[in-house]
């Protein structure tokens, strides 16, 4: 059929037809509307135009398009339904967007329905994405009405329009996705339009046909006219009829004109009939169209009204929603206020409770104190009465007195128990407080969940109500746990846990035993720190038995001496009383609180130390502290601060090296802290070698000034304590250059920072040198000078000076005059060594009692009938590590006292021009500084290790103690270099003695100091042998002194011989020199110990030697310690004692036995008492494991809860650094990524 109408000819419009008509309405502009009549089973081809025969026409299936195949598809009707099939097209046929079959295959038949979307081919683009060839896209209409025939009414044809048939079963169909207008009305409109368009097309075709016919007739007429003329002229000619057939010449002549006219009339009639039909159809169409338009208008109007109603309804809904939103906002506001009120109420309740508890506890403490005081008074009175009675009445025997004392003791015990009960009550109150805190936490959690609920309830409205979101966010913030804010995260104050350590008579109450301790009485500021928001909550479990506190109590019960008496022997009553007084002041000041000490970073610690120094100065001014009080308070707070060097070095240097004028100008304001100074000697390139420093101070006579300058990088001042940030002045050691001559290092007091705003002065550059092994609370600094001018008065000129103008240098009268300050500082460092070592060994000893490991099966310990693990202090190795350190601490106590006495004596002598003591004091202080600080640093580390793993925890107090103590071995003379000064002096003394002895100008009455004494004894008998044959012989102090003296003298003699006779270089002798110094200083320590406990050391003027008044128990334990110090020192390093010939191998073996026996039998029972006698408050030790009460584990755990990392349960950084490994599917970034 080739796309032409199957059932009609060119003018088939006249044939009435019931075949379906498939109308393809173009969706794009690729073709003109097509109406394809589909008689039953006649297939109409769809394809591309390939020539004239396949030129596209409204009634055929050809398209002028490159995207179609030649034979693309076919359509046909069957049983009144219309079908399509793709005929192996390349670009496919798409029905409602779905391709009918794959490329180059023939598809199944698919039924076409009204409003289906049909596409032939696909859009073809060029490489830039521009459209090259557009697909053929159309909409389907199917009409089944007959063509209107003349006479048939539109109603008739309309009646034949059927609704689209449902999909035939068994035949493919693809439903249109387009929204079809439901109802027959709209379908009919579409069909009518289709029909009318089809009619119009056919009319146009008819019109074109008529034009063609008219033209043909015109042509024919012309031909006939021409032929007629010719025939008229030639008779009997045959003519062709109009059909081209030959006409017989015998037929009558035809009147062509008439015929033509008649034909024309017929044609005109036909045309006018057709035109009339056309006009009728047009009128009908217009009428129909008008009707349809009207109905459409009505429909439109209805729709518009409906739309208006819907808008109105929507507006009403929106305003209702606004109303609801406002109400919900109001509700949120209300809830927030309610939450706030509840929170406030709870906080107030807690505060009330706290203050009530505080009051209760304070009352209890006051009551306990009062009771205790009352009892003490009573005891005193009764004792006095008893003594008076005993004195007055010889008849009453001491038994009565003792009985009375016994009863007093019982009373004391009762009182103690009452006090313990009070403590337990206080604990219960605190427990209650803790529960309330827990409740508060729970309420907070509940409030948070209520808020969360509200948030989710209103979640849907958040997009409509921007304020809603903000409001929710706000209230979320207000409910955030307080743990997140610094102010709320505070722990207990270890600083207020002042468990006093004066033996049984002193109160043992310790505030820090509570998990949530309450601040001490009258200290409202510290009370604010009670609330601890830690995610880490340990259960309130007791340690397993026996309890540490019981173990320490048992130890104290074993003590064979009076602890208080020993404390008094060590410090004197005045110092102990001072300590009590200072503690009561210190514990009230938050700046001295140590509870955060182990958790802070360097910057925070520095800030804390600065504040602490400030408060200490304030406290000192307020209470008019003496120098000793200030030093003592500083030692209790125990935190090196930025103002430490001001007191430690700046003031003493000004005092000892300044002229009267300089004391007025610098020292006085410095004492008032108007000037804050530091001591700047060490340089980047030089420390020990002070003579090598490179900073210059050149005198400028024209202006009478010094120009201080840093010529090299190595001349940069370095390590200077307090210089980094705090100081505004410095004593600068610089090479004094005047009149072109370098006179070596001299001290200059110079301003370095503005007194107005603390900025660096022009010509000075300074800053902090950064973090260190320890001592990080001090701002050790560095400094450069750039031709910095200072007035002449800056040179501290007590000993050396220059003449103004000429710049002439004036030498000091004695080069050693400035040694005084050095001796003072070194002697005080011996005191610091005893303090450092004693603190560490106190912690380690108490902990070793509480700490139990393994059962010693040879001597199992029992608790009731149960065998318990052995306290580690009972292991002999632990004793060998710790007890000699206790003994060394006592040795340092006595020697530091003696050193201070000698310093003052020497200063007094020097003031009168007597320098005879200076060299010996200087040499001894150097050697002793070296030895004691070396021993203390090593001893602190040994104590730390003796505490095992817990010694490694900062909470033990030992790591920080070690770090802050460590520089003592370096500053104020490096410990190895210092020994050379001692050695040099000893060699000189020895040479002089030998010379005197050799010259016969000597006898033993000339011995006026101990060095000479032991040297002289040695020279008298260099082959002296130790007489000991049993271990007990080594308890003889004379034997001990002989051993130490002989060995020191031997080493000195050997070294002098090596230097003088063997001509060994100094450098090659440094190890021997070090050993000489150590031997000499050990002799001093042993001797001072022995003399000290015998009461044979000289006392400062007006002082009574307490040693002589000691009770037997104290004397014995001190003698034990003295023995242990001497015997252990030999036993630990016996080499030199053997080398000098005083001891032999057997002696060493005897000595070992003596040491072990002494420790086990004599020191062990007294170990805790001996460290208690150091009288260190818990506040000073700041140790979880070394406190007086032995509650090691409880404190330790409590400190751990304060670890800032424990404020949150899930670590910060979990999302970024842990979760990606452990829970990768839930990582936020992952979800976001996948969403993206
Ligand atoms: C925490 C801290 C605070 C300080 N505060 C101050 C301060 O406020 N003001 C101040 O001026 N200084 C201060 N100093 C510096 C301190 O005084 C010096 O570090 C100290 O004098 C040692 O000098 P040095 O560091 O240059 O060591 P060096 O002298 O360089 O010694 C290095 C090593 O060489 C050895 N050695 C050097 N010479 C000899 C020799 N002749 N024979 C044998 N061995 C030798 C030493 O024993 C040492 O082991 C401080 C130091 C520290 C650690």
From TrEMBL:
Keyword Manganese: no
Keywords for the protein's UniProt record, in alphabetical order: ATP-binding, Coiled coil, FAD, Fatty acid metabolism, Flavoprotein, Lipid metabolism, Nucleotide-binding, Oxidoreductase, Peroxisome
Biased composition (Polar residues): 1-20
PROSITE patterns the record matches: FHA_DOMAIN
Pfam families, sorted: ACOX, ACOX_C_alpha1, Acyl-CoA_dh_M, Acyl-CoA_ox_N, FHA
Entries under SUPFAM superfamilies matching the protein: Acyl-CoA dehydrogenase C-terminal domain-like (SSF47203), Acyl-CoA dehydrogenase NM domain-like (SSF56645), SMAD/FHA domain (SSF49879)
Names of the cofactor(s): FAD
InterPro entries according to UniProt: ACOX_C_alpha1, Acyl-CoA_ox_N, Acyl-CoA_Oxase/DH_mid-dom, Acyl-CoA_Oxase/DH_mid-dom_sf, Acyl-CoA_oxidase, Acyl-CoA_oxidase_C, AcylCo_DH-like_C, AcylCoA_DH/ox_N_sf
EC number: 1.3.3.6
Pathway of action: Lipid metabolism; peroxisomal fatty acid beta-oxidation
Subcellular location: Peroxisome
GO molecular function: acyl-CoA oxidase activity; ATP binding; FAD binding; fatty acid binding
Coiled-coil features, chain-numbered ranges: 286-363, 391-453
Gene Ontology cellular component annotations, sorted alphabetically: peroxisome
Keyword Lipid metabolism: yes
Region of interest: Disordered: 1-21, 149-173, 471-502
Catalytic activity: a 2,3-saturated acyl-CoA + O2 = a (2E)-enoyl-CoA + H2O2
GO biological process, one term: fatty acid beta-oxidation using acyl-CoA oxidase
Domain FHA, residue spans: 44-100
Location (main, coarse): other
Family: Belongs to the acyl-CoA oxidase family.
Name of the protein in its database record: acyl-CoA oxidase
Origin species: Entomortierella chlamydospora
Taxon lineage: Eukaryota, Fungi, Fungi incertae sedis, Mucoromycota, Mortierellomycotina
